[in-house]
């Protein structure tokens, strides 16, 4: 059986574990994450995508292009992960794909879509959601769930990985942003490679243990006024954590134009950065559908010059 | 009773110079309470282009318009001497729930000193504890007289708000059929000013009834108006200075505008005390289920549901207003483009952002009105 | 008094004038046959009064004596134009473009219009407009974007179509914002990318931007009619065909389609019309200025039309204090 799982969703650690789980339980499934070149033509068809942010549009396009190639399309409805909400767009993602699917003329209309609601705050929730997903994917041919759902990587393992990743570099830059931006070469515009090429190691929020970041971010919560989006907590926590513990040479905050959540996080980060009183230079990069590598390269070069100026002074 | 809970929260407020957003009926409500309870207040200057510019300057391009305007209101009020800010809050999952948190950060960074009280949009223990903390200092400044005056103050504020919204609703109907729509605007201004001045429950209802009589005197042209439902993000739907007076602009083109969001309904929904209202909302949301199987948050599903409702009631169209980059509403806009085609009801989607959009909006409204007329008559103009 | 323009051989016509921010367009339609008798497309150059005057001069100096049965105005300057030529037939440009397209191609399902500062899409089904969208204030997807870049490249905007067609591998140029596009273009020039490639890249970027921000996922179905000044550019037409997968039809008079639609609108006007006084414009001195009204917090910018140095008309005030002052003042008192 061929299961389509849009590549954009793989940036979520829970989705990667789900994939691992399904692969273990049912060895003959084959996952597809992007459509073959031939089907990318679907992308030019009118899609009801409105003026959402680019990552969201891209995800819808990938899902649509996968439809004709797979037996099932797995697009879980991500409401909450690790006890924190995701951007409301993720809740509507399956509906938008279904709506567009129903408007298609061809046989891909028949591809079934599994849109299990993912509302996870605990280990038990993970097991429940997993059971629901398996039911959706395999119906009567349900595999026995002998093994427990894979656990997330431990904080220690993550730390070890990070220090191995940073080992070749003398200086580091914290690249802050959402997992789906930073892990997609199309959306991160090659920033990590460019920085590596200039001799800087790159730390992203996803390299750090989420539980730690969550606790750090909680310091800025005030009763009912908690930062309730998971991605925002990750960025906020990472900013506070790296500036306090890691002394990076610089901070780059990459966000997507039109992202409502990041618009507010940006205000919080700028405010926190102000309190650092210029000790660590910071740059905000806004990317979208039309952003090009050259714009980014110019800005990165200038930013690294600023950093060098500060280090040599 | 929702006002009982509101009283509880307001009891925590003892204030030196309080201020609140200068938004529609919300400000009449807050002002009446401050006045009646004998609390000194600073009325923020009316929302103008300058207010919006101040808000834009201190945020970034993807921040939503209502936040920019409320921030602008507060900065103007603090500059005018206010030192305590009261605003109605909200909760997850959309940005509304973090307006207060964000605005506080911006104001603090700008060097303003102020005290803050969020009237919770959703009443929870967390919210209560927060209010308890926020008002620690304020409570000491309260006098017994303030305390005693609160219940009456809230009653008066609430009645004023309800009357004000009732009159606004009547104006939306009348504009579309008035021989000279501008007479309705003049009437509305006078009526609201008179309400604002009324100082007792009796006076309020007397002023209200008299205004209704005056409205009935206004001459009509006798043509059948077009009827549209206005849906979208709460603040944008409710507040003319955010939605660029869309209700008025449509009214002057002979379109009657109906909307379900008013400040009082917003408070009543949040308080979750009116069971009938909750049931009604739940039933309404069912209408969106063929298109959205899960609650996307804020008004998104309602925007879709009310569009379906408008079709059922045979309205001529739907106007969907939302701030540019509003997350749940961009989704609603995508869905509505399909709903509009499928149900055959014209939908005008207006993402609002810039201040220099007036002429453009008029052009779009005129074209939209043409489309509705064509649909009604079945031929091109 | 009999107007000099009415005589026995006078040709009865309908007049449409479209005053845009960049260009002013005029169309004269013969009453009855609805044939285009004359049309003109000229630059507004920031002076709409002058350009409307030019239009009227042209009509007056035509050897054929015309009798204007009705005139209508459209475009962002429609209000001013209507005041100047003395008509109350004013129509928004979305509807006039629809009228024009459906008159020429009754089966059209999609209308693309790209003008100087505005671009729009109109969705038509069963010969009726059902939906539309207009660009936001940004100029990225409009004609002035091409104008600006043509100036920067030192090429004529009229030549851009042919240049784009001659290119095999268009350069990739950002389209969200004209500022970014410019940075890109300069960069591409510096690294030695050919001019044709850059022009083709600009066309691609404009179409991509239009589809992303103006068409915004609206269902584009053939027949697609392309109107507005930019439709002259064959490179853009080709790009639209490539990116939408539909053939694009460009009809004669595409550049004056708004004015054409306005003339059609004028022809449909019901009832007895007062005699056309538009040529007054040529005999008297007209000027427009504006002032900020400070009677309330709205602080409207009120526009004022002067005829022979006397203020004769006001508009753009939200409360009607000036524009409808007299009419309603009497009602009130």
Can you walk through the features of this model?
The complex is a heterotrimer of chains A (313), B (381) and C (333). Helix content of chain A is 46%, strand content 14%. Chain A has 313 residues and is of the alpha/beta class. In chain A, the strands form 3 sheets. Chain A has a 4-stranded parallel sheet with strand order 2-1-3-6, covered by helices on one side. Chain A has a 4-stranded parallel sheet with strand order 9-8-10-11, with helices on both faces. Chain A is globular. Chain B has a domain at 2-154: 3-Layer(aba) Sandwich (Rossmann fold), CATH 3.40.50. Chain B is built from 18 helices and 7 strands. Chain B has helices at residues 2-10, 24-36, 49-57, 65-79, 99-109, 125-134, 136-141, 144-177, 181-197, 201-217, 234-238, 240-243, 246-252, 263-271, 275-286, 300-312, 327-343, 358-377, and strands spanning 18-19, 84-88, 115-119, 226-232, 255-259, 317-323, 347-352. In chain B, the strands form 2 sheets. A 4-stranded parallel sheet of chain B has the order 5-4-6-7, sandwiched between helices. In chain B, strands 1-2-3 form a 3-stranded parallel sheet, sandwiched between helices. In chain B, β2 (84-88), α5 (99-109) and β3 form a beta-alpha-beta unit. In chain B, α8 runs parallel beside α13 and α16 packs parallel to α17. Chain B is globular, with a radius of gyration of 21 Å. With 333 residues, chain C is an alpha/beta fold. Chain C has 3 domains: 11-96 and 260-283, Nucleotidyltransferase, domain 5 (2-Layer Sandwich), CATH 3.30.420; 107-250, ATPase, nucleotide binding domain (Nucleotidyltransferase, domain 5); 286-332, no CATH class. Chain C is 36% helix and 24% strand. Chain C has 11 helices and 12 strands. Chain C has helices at residues 48-61, 78-85, 93-104, 143-153, 160-166, 178-190, 195-215, 234-244, 257-267, 280-283, 325-332, and strands at 11-19, 23-30, 36-43, 66-74, 110-114, 119-125, 128-134, 224-227, 248-249, 286-292, 301-307, 310-315. In chain C, strands 7-6-5-8-9 form a 5-stranded mixed sheet, sandwiched between helices. In chain C, β2 and β3 form a beta hairpin. In chain C, α4 packs antiparallel against α7. The model of chain C is unreliable at 326-333 (pLDDT under 50). The chains are: A alpha/beta (313), B alpha/beta (381), C alpha/beta (333). At the A-B interface, α3 and α11 of A face α5, α6 and α17 of B.
């Amino acid at each position: 059986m061929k299961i389509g799982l849009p590549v954009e969703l793989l940036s979520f650690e829970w989705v990667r574990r789900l994939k691992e789980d399904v692969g273990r339980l049912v060895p003959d499934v084959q996952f597809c994450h992007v459509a073959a070149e031939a089907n990318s033509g679907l992308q030019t068809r009118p899609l009801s995508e409105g003026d959402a942010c680019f990552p969201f549009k891209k995800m819808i396009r990938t899902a649509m292009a996968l439809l004709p190639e797979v037996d099932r399309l797995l697009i879980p409805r991500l409401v909450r992960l690790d006890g924190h909400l995701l951007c409301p767009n993720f809740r509507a993602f399956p509906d938008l794909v279904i709506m567009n699917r129903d408007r298609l003329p061809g046989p891909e209309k028949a591809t079934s879509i599994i849109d299990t609601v993912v509302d996870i705050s605990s280990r038990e929730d993970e097991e429940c959601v997993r059971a629901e997903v398996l039911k959706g994917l395999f119906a009567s041919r349900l595999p026995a769930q002998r093994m427990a759902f894979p656990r997330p990587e431990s904080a220690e393992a993550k730390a070890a990985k990070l220090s191995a990743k940073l080992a070749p570099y003398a200086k580091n830059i914290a690249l802050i942003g959402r997992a789906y931006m930073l892990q997609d070469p199309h959306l991160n515009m090659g920033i990590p490679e460019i920085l590596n090429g200039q001799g800087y190691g790159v730390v992203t929020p996803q390299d750090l243990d989420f539980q730690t970041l969550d606790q750090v971010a909680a310091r800025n919560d005030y009763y009912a006024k908690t930062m309730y989006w998971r991605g925002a907590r990750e960025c906020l926590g990472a900013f506070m954590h790296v500036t306090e513990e890691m002394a990076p040479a610089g901070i780059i905050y990459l966000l997507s134009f039109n992202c409502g959540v990041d618009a507010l996080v940006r205000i919080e980060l700028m405010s926190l950065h102000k309190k650092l009183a210029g000790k660590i230079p910071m740059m905000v990069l806004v990317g979208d559908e039309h952003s090009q590598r050259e714009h980014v390269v110019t800005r990165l070069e200038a930013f690294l010059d600023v950093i060098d100026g500060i280090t040599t002074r | 009773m929702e006002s009982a809970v509101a009283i509880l929260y307001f009891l925590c407020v003892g204030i030196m110079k309080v201020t609140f957003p200068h938004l529609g009926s919300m400000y009449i409500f807050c002002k009446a309470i401050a006045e009646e309870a004998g609390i000194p207040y600073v009325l923020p200057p009316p929302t103008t282009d300058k207010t919006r510019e101040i808000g834009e300057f201190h945020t970034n391009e993807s921040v939503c318009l209502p936040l920019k305007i409320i921030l602008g209101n507060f900065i103007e009020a603090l500059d005018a001497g206010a030192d305590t800010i009261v605003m109605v809050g909200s909760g997850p999952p959309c940005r509304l729930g973090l307006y207060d948190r964000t605005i506080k950060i911006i104001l603090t960074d700008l060097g303003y000193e102020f005290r803050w009280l969020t009237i919770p949009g959703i009443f929870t223990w967390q919210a209560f504890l927060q209010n308890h903390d926020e008002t620690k200092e304020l409570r000491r400044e309260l006098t017994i007289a303030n305390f005693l005056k609160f219940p009456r103050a809230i009653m008066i504020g609430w009645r004023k708000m309800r009357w004000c919204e009732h009159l606004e609703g009547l104006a939306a109907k009348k504009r579309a059929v008035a021989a000279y729509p501008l007479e309705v605007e003049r009437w509305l201004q006078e009526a609201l000013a008179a309400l604002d001045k009324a100082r007792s429950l009796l006076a309020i209802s007397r002023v209200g009834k008299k205004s209704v009589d005056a409205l009935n005197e206004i001459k009509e042209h006798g043509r059948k108006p077009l009827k549209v439902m206005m849906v979208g993000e709460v603040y944008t739907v409710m507040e003319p200075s955010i939605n660029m007076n869309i209700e008025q602009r449509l009214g002057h083109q002979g379109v009657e505008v109906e909307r379900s969001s008013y400040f009082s309904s917003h408070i009543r929904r949040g308080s979750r005390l009116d069971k009938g209202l909750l049931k009604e909302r739940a039933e309404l949301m069912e209408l969106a289920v063929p298109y959205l199987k899960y609650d996307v948050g804020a008004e998104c599903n309602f925007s879709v549901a009310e569009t379906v409702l408008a079709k059922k009631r045979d309205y001529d169209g739907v106007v969907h207003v939302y701030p540019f980059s509003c997350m749940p509403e961009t989704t609603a806009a995508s869905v509505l483009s399909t709903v509009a085609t499928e149900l055959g009801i014209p939908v005008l989607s207006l993402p609002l952002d810039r201040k220099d959009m007036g002429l453009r909006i008029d052009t779009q409204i005129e074209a939209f009105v043409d489309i509705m007329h064509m649909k009604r008559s079945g031929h091109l103009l | 008094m009999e107007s000099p323009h009415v005589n026995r051989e006078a040709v009865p016509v309908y007049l449409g004038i479209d005053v845009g921010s960049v260009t002013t367009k005029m169309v004269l339609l013969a009453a009855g046959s609805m044939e285009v008798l004359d049309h003109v497309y000229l630059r507004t150059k920031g002076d709409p009064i002058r350009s409307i005057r030019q239009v009227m001069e042209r009509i007056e100096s035509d050897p054929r004596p015309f009798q204007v049965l009705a005139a209508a105005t459209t475009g962002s300057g429609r209000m001013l134009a209507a005041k100047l030529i003395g008509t109350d037939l004013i129509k928004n440009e979305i509807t006039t473009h629809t009228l024009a397209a459906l008159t020429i191609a009754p089966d059209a399902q999609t209308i693309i219009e790209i003008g100087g500062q505005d671009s729009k899409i109109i969705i038509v089904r069963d010969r009726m407009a059902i939906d539309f969208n207009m660009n936001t204030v940004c100029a990225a997807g409009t004609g002035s974007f091409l104008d600006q870049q043509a100036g920067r490249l030192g090429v004529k905007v009229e030549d851009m179509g042919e240049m784009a067609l001659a290119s095999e591998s268009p350069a990739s140029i950002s389209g969200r914002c004209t500022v970014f596009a410019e940075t890109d273009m300069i960069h591409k020039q510096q690294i030695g990318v050919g001019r044709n490639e850059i022009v083709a890249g600009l066309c691609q970027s404009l179409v991509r931007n239009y589809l992303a921000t103006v068409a915004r996922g609206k269902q584009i179905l053939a027949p697609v009619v392309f109107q507005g000044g930019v439709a002259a550019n064959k490179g853009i037409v080709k790009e639209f065909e490539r990116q939408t997968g539909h053939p694009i039809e460009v009809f004669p008079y595409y550049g004056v389609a708004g004015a054409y639609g306005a003339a059609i609108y004028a022809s449909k006007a019901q009832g007895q019309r007062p005699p056309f006084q538009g040529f007054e414009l040529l005999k008297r001195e007209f000027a427009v200025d504006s002032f900020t009204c400070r009677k309330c917090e709205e602080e409207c910018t009120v526009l004022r039309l002067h005829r022979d140095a006397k203020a004769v008309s006001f508009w753009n005030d939200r409360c009607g204090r000036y524009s409808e002052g007299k009419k309603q003042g009497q009602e009130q008192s």
